[in-house]
Amino acid sequence: MSSREAVAGGARATAAGRARSAVPAPGPIVLAIYNTLYWPYLFGTCAILFFPALVIYLFTLSDKKQRVLASYTSAWGAHYLAWAPLAGTTVDGREHAPLDRACVYVSNHQSMVDILAVFGTRIPFKWVSKVENFYAPFLGWNMWLNGYVALKRKHLPSIMRMVRTCNAKLRAGDSLFVFPEGTRSPDGNLQSFHRGAFVIATRNRVPVVPMVIEGTGQILPKGTFCIRPRPVLVRILPAMDPASFGYDARRLRQDCFRLRAARGAVDL
Q1: In this predicted model, which residue has the larger pLDDT, 238 or 7?
Q2: CATH code of the domain containing 18
Q3: How many domains does the chain have?
Q4: pLDDT, tens only, 253-265
Q5: Is residue 268, in this structure, part of any structural domain at all?
Q6: Are 13 and 264 in contact (CB under 8 A)?
Q7: Contact criterion met (CB below 8 Å) for 198 and 252
Q8: Distance between CA 73 and CA 80 in Å, rounded?
Q9: Residue 61 CB partners (closer than 8 Å, separation 6+)
Q10: CB environment 87-112: b (16+ within 10 A), e (fewer)
């Protein structure tokens, strides 16, 4: 990334951070009303919106890329944040997403809301997610339909199967999305990255595209179910070519971590 890109990206991020800081925090009465309405809306619409996804899946079985279903799923997931009162999603740097080839997207992970924020980028990819999520009614079932990659944590056969599936997805031209921290950060600080996403990227010789999600940790921190709405920023950083690191997954992971850490605080 050039110094000009860094300066421009930093200026945009600073402006977006100031805009989000200017939004007044809702009071306790507003929060109580918000949560009373939001959760029933989310669960109710998930049940309703799953059935169009199932119809799309059945009528587009011949499309191995599942483009229509992926687009529908992105719109479905994104609207819970992008259209939510007092919230919203801003995407910066979408031009850095290599839409003409497979890649591995990685991002910091603060909250369940991260998923909604990433859907707001409208970038096609396959999530790599813990297998428990796939059994959640409606949302998890839609993950199966989309061909996302399931993983049972700390279970070697599942990990090996996940790697084989990811390799096959990348060879077929599908991009992947991974949270390399493995789990949500409890305090918003960046946790160490697991090596899996970077090993897969180097072995398949595809770029890693870092993302930075800002604001979600304050909306729904880990360990709570009280939503505190606010605008969110998703920054897509320039792709990192494994060739520039001699196809060394360790160096790629370390540099990606340093790059992400250098972008500043998670919640501006």
Answers
A1: 238
A2: 3.40.1130
A3: 1
A4: 999 998 766 664 4
A5: no
A6: yes
A7: yes
A8: 12
A9: none
A10: bbbbbbbeebbbeeebbbbbbbbbbe
Has residue 36 been placed in a domain?
yes
Q: How many CB atoms lie within 10 A of CB 63?
A: 13
256 occurs within a structural domain: yes
- Three-state DSSP state, 82: helix
Which residue range(s) make up the domain with 132?
Answer: 3-261
Which of 266, 242, 260 minimizes the C-alpha distance to 252? 242
pTM (2 d.p.): 0.88
pLDDT tens digit sequence for 1-51:
433 343 344 444 444 454 454 567 789 999 999 999 999 999 999 999 999
What pLDDT sits at residue 265? 42
Would you say 248 and 195 are in contact if contact means Cβ atoms under 8 Å apart? no
Return d(Cα 93, Cα 209) in angstroms, integer: 11
Mean pLDDT, the chain, as a whole number?
89
Which residues pair with residue 243 across a beta bridge? none
Query: Which two three-digit tokens encode residue 100?
Result: 């003409």
In angstroms, the Cα distances linking 132 to 10, 19, 82, 87, 128 are 37, 37, 26, 28, 12
Sheet holding 208-214, edge to edge: 89-92, 232-236, 208-214, 104-107, 176-178, 126-130, 149-151
